[in-house]
Structures are given as structure tokens and as C-alpha cells.
């Protein structure tokens, strides 16, 4: 049921059939204003068929790249270009990014929590001395209990940047595992002193230059968060994004939280959520 914004009366449903396609619209009985079914929705201005968009969502949630989605749609007779597929996958990824930012902004991890930082891109010099890639650092927190992961892009790996993130998502008294990076430990004294203990955290560190799992206590390691970095770097190598890397990170977080068989319905629920807002 549709109502005209000005006349505030119920609109009549119309179905105009031609030789090539059928146009379904709404018409006001007073002012004869005609509105499309997509008017006032997130699909307004979309020039592809709903079935094509539905297939894009399905293939996107199934892990296909933009080029793969385009090649899958072409045999089905969909008149769509590669740029169109790129446009709608970017829209879906943006919705995921907005949802992840909203849901994880005030999330508290119950612990135990593993923390670590990683470099997604490193500087490579080309044949003529040009920089092929720039440095892109991320900081992550992974809860062993809930399996939830939080990833922040960071410009600097120092205490001024890292510790406020830790205090935002981890309550005092929580067990934290990390490596012996100078951001977490004062390695100039023996034994090294934790910078996090002064905030009430139970902090354990593992020296990766000696071992990856403590011989004294097997729970002291950062293998869980290291697996997150391996999966994230694999995702970035697959898509090779040159910009909007934050959105690809949010997509990876969503895929780590939502099972593959539920991702399609998750995206549809996101579309409904942002439509109502």
C-alpha cells in the first residue's frame, strides 16, 4: 500500500504491459502522480532487475569476487556490466561496514582475550624506485570465549594508540595474552614489566623469538589472533583492494561471525534494517 506524500490518499496499483517488459507503478487518483515500486526505497534508481540483484547478493555471500560474479551472470542473459556489479557489491560491503562499526563500537569482550597487531601491506620498491604499496597496520582483539574479533586500522603502534582501544573493549580483571612487543611490555628491565597491569589486567606475554606456546602454561599463546591475520591477509590478497580497505576488513569480520549458510539472509536483514532507518 502506497500513499502520496502531498495528497495523503491511497494510490492505485498499475501494471503497464509492453512487448518487452511489464512496468508496475502506483498512481494517485487525485493528482495522477505516478511513483515506481522502488521510489522511496534503497532500490530507487536501480536499473537492474530484482532477480539480478538477488543473484548478486547470493554470489557475494558465497564468496565470489566481482569478476567471478560478472562471469556467472553473463550466461544467464543478464544485461549487466562489470562496473554495475562492482557498484552493487560496493553498496553491500558499505552496509556491512556500517553495521559492523555500529555493533562493535561499544562491544565488551569477556575474555580471555588475545591482542596483536599486523601489517596488511608492506612497502615494495619497483624497478624505478617507486613505492608499489604503502604500510597499512591493523590492531586486533580476539575473545577466546565468544570467538568475537575486533579489528582497528591504526597509524601508529604505540601505547598512546593501542592502550585506549584495549581499555574501551576489555574490562579490568580480564586475562590478556600478547607477544612481548614494546607497546605491551617494558623490555628494558628484567623481567619485562607489563604496561597493562597498572590498569587492572591480568597480562601474560609470549616471546616469539624463543617459542610460540609457553612450555610452562600451554594457554599462553597468540595463535588464535594469528589465525585471524592469516585469514584477513588471504582475503585481501584475493580481492586486492586499492582503497576502502576498512570495508573489506568489516566484510571479513562479518564472514568470521556469520556462518556461510546464513550470510544471504543476514544481508537481506541488513537491507531491511537500513531501509526502515
Estimate the global geometry from the Cα principal axes. elongated
What's the CATH H-level superfamily name of the domain at 113-261? Answer: Ribonuclease H-like superfamily/Ribonuclease H
- How many strands in all? 10
Gyration radius, to the nearest Å?
25 Å
Q: Strand pairing plus helix content: what structural class? A: alpha+beta
H-E order: EEEHHHEEEHEEEEHHH
Question: Which runs of at least 5 residues are low in confidence (pLDDT < 50)?
Answer: none
Look at the structure and give the mean pLDDT.
79
CATH architecture verdict of the domain at 113-261:
2-Layer Sandwich
CATH topology name of the domain at 113-261, in short, is Nucleotidyltransferase, domain 5
Termini gap: 19 Å
Q: Give a quick account of the main beta sheet: strands, pairing sense, barrel closure.
A: 5 strands, mixed
What report would you give on this structure?
It is a single chain. This protein has helices at 50-61, 66-73, 82-104, 159-169, 223-239, 245-257, 263-276, and strands at residues 12-17, 22-27, 34-36, 113-121, 136-143, 149-154, 175-179, 185-186, 193-194, 202-206. By secondary structure, it is of the alpha+beta class. Among the domains are: 1-37; 113-261, Ribonuclease H-like superfamily/Ribonuclease H (Nucleotidyltransferase, domain 5, 2-Layer Sandwich). Strand 5 and strand 6 form a beta hairpin. The longest helix is centred in the middle third of the chain and has 23 residues, at 82-104. It is elongated. It starts with 11 loop residues before the first strand and ends with a helix. The mean pLDDT is 79.
Amino acid at each position: 500500500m502506497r500513499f502520496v506524500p502531498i495528497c495523503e490518499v491511497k494510490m492505485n496499483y498499475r501494471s503497464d504491459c509492453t512487448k518487452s517488459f511489464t512496468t508496475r507503478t502506483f498512481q494517485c487518483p487525485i493528482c495522477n502522480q505516478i511513483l515506481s515500486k522502488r521510489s522511496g526505497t534503497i532500490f530507487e534508481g536501480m536499473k537492474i532487475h530484482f532477480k539480478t540483484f538477488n543473484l548478486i547478493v547470493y554470489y557475494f555471500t558465497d564468496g565470489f569476487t566481482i569478476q567471478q560474479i560478472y562471469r556467472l551472470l553473463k550466461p544467464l542473459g543478464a544485461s549487466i556490466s562489470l562496473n554495475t556489479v562492482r557498484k552493487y557489491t560496493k553498496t553491500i560491503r558499505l552496509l556491512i561496514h556500517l553495521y559492523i562499526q555500529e555493533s562493535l563500537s561499544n562491544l565488551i569482550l569477556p575474555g580471555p582475550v588475545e591482542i596483536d597487531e599486523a601489517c596488511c601491506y608492506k612497502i615494495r620498491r619497483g624497478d624505478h624506485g617507486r613505492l608499489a604499496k604503502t604500510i597499512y597496520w591493523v590492531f586486533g582483539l580476539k575473545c577466546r570465549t565468544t570467538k568475537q574479533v575486533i579489528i582497528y586500522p591504526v597509524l601508529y603502534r604505540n601505547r598512546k594508540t593501542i592502550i585506549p582501544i584495549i581499555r574501551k573493549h576489555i574490562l579490568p580483571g580480564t586475562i590478556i595474552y600478547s607477544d612481548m612487543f614494546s607497546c605491551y611490555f617494558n623490555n628494558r628491565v628484567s623481567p619485562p614489566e607489563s604496561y597493562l597491569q597498572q590498569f587492572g589486567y591480568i597480562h601474560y606475554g609470549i616471546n616469539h623469538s624463543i617459542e610460540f606456546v609457553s612450555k610452562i602454561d600451554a594457554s599462553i599463546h597468540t595463535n588464535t589472533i594469528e589465525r585471524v591475520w592469516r585469514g584477513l591477509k588471504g582475503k585481501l590478497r584475493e580481492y586486492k583492494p586499492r582503497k576502502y580497505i576498512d570495508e573489506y576488513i568489516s566484510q571479513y569480520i562479518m564472514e568470521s561471525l556469520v556462518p556461510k549458510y546464513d550470510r544471504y539472509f543476514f544481508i537481506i536483514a541488513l537491507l531491511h534494517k537500513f531501509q526502515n532507518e
